[in-house]
Amino acid sequence: MKSFLTTTATILTIGLTAFGCQKSDNVQQNQTSATNNEITTLNIGYQKAALKLIVAKQNHFFEKEFPNVKISWNEFPAGPPTLEALSAGAIDFGYTGDAPIVFALSAGKSLNYLGYEDAAKRGHALLVPNGSNIHTISDLKGKRIGLTKGSSAHNFLAEVLKKANLTWADIQPVWLAPSDARAALDKKAIDAWAVWEPYVSATELSGTAKAVFDSTTLPKTYGYYLAQPSFIQQHPKDAQKVLDVLNETDQWINNHPKETTEILANSTGLNLNIAEKVLTTKPTPNPVEPLTPTVIQSQQDLGNLFFSLKLIPNNIHASEFVWHPQK
């Protein structure tokens, strides 16, 4: 994994300035003229929050659907590095939450929306160590809050601050990867941690921290599958097959809750009771569909919000990066 990330970083350093924005009109034009040559490799990016991909990997669903294709699985700690690898061409498609896409598009990264799914209502939480003097979100002023920059937790914390009538200037954001943030919270080097599942349940059940607020009452959010524009343009039928496998996996998850819990635990290193708790937060069934106008607008609204808060340098035009499968 370390060598893969090093390779990805090198590719990014060499090629970052070459990336441009790929308009959805071009996606459709190229899709129409694509010869759909058979693919020989399929590089997949996943993370601990990507339940369907974890289950599909364990059950070899992609290998069965693409029998003559070399399937490569690449794990990432969060959405931002997943999209860095996608933009660099190191993976063909991957999974992430909402905010990383906005940051990536604002930076001119090369990607297209492939599909979406509903996110868990309690998919994010604000955790504080035991004995903390933070009891409500109104107590966050002046506090050090750990989060992964550009991740879905970035959006979650923005919503929390808005609900508490606070601004980013009222807190001290501390940019940390999930593993580093967990260690910092345990040592009380940060006052709170904004994070997503399965880290929420794992930390709560450890008995060292508790949630003072979660995303249950916040606006609906979604999970996204993003693809390399060239993959969609050159292989539109295979892009559709990716969505088909994800939906077959969703059906398997619904029909095999016990086995799914075991797969999640074994694949992520979580205890069975933590994996079971994580799964109770997941919507069921939860199909993957091409983006609808409502979902596209939710991404645009997030871009508008981040741009107004000066969290991104350029606003986005989400609709220009959406793949619309031909019927």
TrEMBL record:
Domain Solute-binding protein family 3/N-terminal: 41-256
Pfam hit, one: NMT1
Cellular component annotations (GO), alphabetically ordered: membrane; periplasmic space
Keywords associated with the record: Signal, Transport
Localization annotation: Periplasm
GO molecular function, one term: ATPase-coupled transmembrane transporter activity
Function: Part of a binding-protein-dependent transport system for aliphatic sulfonates. Putative binding protein.
Family named by the database record: Belongs to the bacterial solute-binding protein SsuA/TauA family.
Full protein name: Putative aliphatic sulfonates-binding protein
Protein's organism: Acinetobacter nectaris CIP 110549
